[in-house]
Amino acid sequence: MSFKVAIIGRPNVGKSTLFNRLAGRKLALVDDTPGVTRDRRIHSAKLYDLNFDVIDTAGFEDAAAATLQGRMRAQTEMAIEEADLVFFLIDSKAGLLPDDRTFAEIVRRSGKPVVLVANKAEARGAQSGMLESWELGLGEPVPVSAEHGQGLPDLRDAIIAAIGEERAFGDEAEEEAVAESEVLIGEDITDPDADEAAAAYDESKPMRIAVVGRPNAGKSTLINALIGQERLLTGPEAGITRDSISVDWEWGGRKIKLFDTAGMRRKARVQEKLEKLSVADGLRAIRFAEVVIVVFDATIPFEKQDLQIADLIIREGRALVIAFNKWDMIDNPQEKLAELREMTDRLLPQVRGVQAVTISAETGRGLEKLMASVIKTHQVWNRRVSTGRLNRWLEGILTHHPPPAVAGRRLKVKYMTQAKTRPPGFVVSCSRPDAMPQSYVRYLVNNLREAFDMPGVPIRMALHASD
Ligand code: GDP
Ligand code: GDP
């Protein structure tokens, strides 16, 4: 079974054009005169080696004026509900309009994976619209021209990045697991990014944490140990509201919402479903959280599944803290720790400097340190660096280690700005972004991480062509 993509956006951004392009239909079907009612359409689509279904929501702009917004909203929500992935389209030529933000909000709240598609990228002045679209907090825009068929390879890569290879190429087992969990769990998860507008670090707002890891790593033991240690509970019986998706709790005066993996499992009841549930469970937990604690079994660390989970957290843009659990079973802690640190840096270079804490969920050792790391990482994830400081830093970098010359011409980097937080995202304005080697971008990211003390969180960096 293939996955479904909903194409979402305000009228006129190019949804039908993209739909037709992906569905291999004739472009003649597109009509920019309002008044042509089209039903919501689903069609099989192909993009290089990816096969999927596209859902188009275009054509509702002719509804009676009074109900226009309501109808479009309902249609949009239905399409998103049905989809595994959302393409959120903007018109980079026109820039952001208030309607874009309204639709973006609906998409964000759905918690579905999303690819921000900056359409009409071939048009004059499209760069500034693209830059502006970072503000939506939907991640890095993928520039395309639906009309001219440009940018499609990047769109393909973005799909895979958003939903993972297994789903993109149709791993049936995983799809089933996800479908199953919808039935069993069926709860709403609000995306923490919805609060992105309030970018400043706010300690009074509850911090959302999830604990993930492969089966038997010690997640349940850890959650129980954390909640058992210092709890301030809301709700009835012994306080824990287990039927909701999270547990309210406090640590050192800090309000926390902890994704209740254990509660979800109890609900599954049927024992055989547990294994399957854990896959979808993990993904939901990650989407829910701001900071994800990934529990490794220190006696058998860095299994393939551990790395897949870490990778998923990074791709979802969440802050990550590693807990090496069952430390009570380690005979040579010093050597082991050095080995684990080395492996962490080597195997997870995207989050260099990630906080890794040794704990024993069973004895409760290390939990203070773990929570301190969680709070520190959360702060970094929310950090904003002023444009002034960034550019002073950039100047120094450019003097000491300028970008290489490509085909005899030196690449110029002009300036940069932080476009978003949670996680930190930067836009670098430069000549010929296409020619910029990835190694230089990595160099910038690593240096930036050090200069502004941002260890262990995913950092996004986009290149923007300056004129
Ligand atoms: P929808 O209302 O979101 O479905 O938008 P349409 O697909 O009907 O497109 C609206 C208008 O934008 C039409 O005139 C299209 O020809 C035009 N359009 C769509 N894609 C592109 C593009 O990549 N570049 C440019 N310049 N125009 C486009
Ligand atoms: P989950 O599947 O990740 O939720 O793992 P559990 O919390 O159910 O733990 C799996 C097994 O590991 C259980 O037998 C736990 O008692 C054991 N375990 C969990 N934490 C520790 C620990 O810190 N030290 C030791 N020695 N065993 C642990």
Automatic annotation (TrEMBL):
- Record has NAD as a keyword: no
Sequence ranges assigned to domain EngA-type G in this UniProt record: 3-167, 207-382
- Does the record carry Cell division as a key word? no
Q: Name one Pfam family in it.
A: KH_dom-like
GO terms under biological process:
ribosome biogenesis
Alphabetized SUPFAM superfamilies for the sequence: P-loop containing nucleoside triphosphate hydrolases
Q: Which CDD domains match?
A: EngA1, EngA2
GO MF terms held by the record: GTP binding
What UniProt keywords are attached to this protein's entry? GTP-binding, Nucleotide-binding, Repeat, Ribosome biogenesis
UniProt-annotated binding residues for GTP 2: 213-220, 260-264, 325-328
Q: What does this protein do?
A: GTPase that plays an essential role in the late steps of ribosome biogenesis.
Tell me the protein's name: GTPase Der
Q: Which organism is it from?
A: Neomesorhizobium albiziae
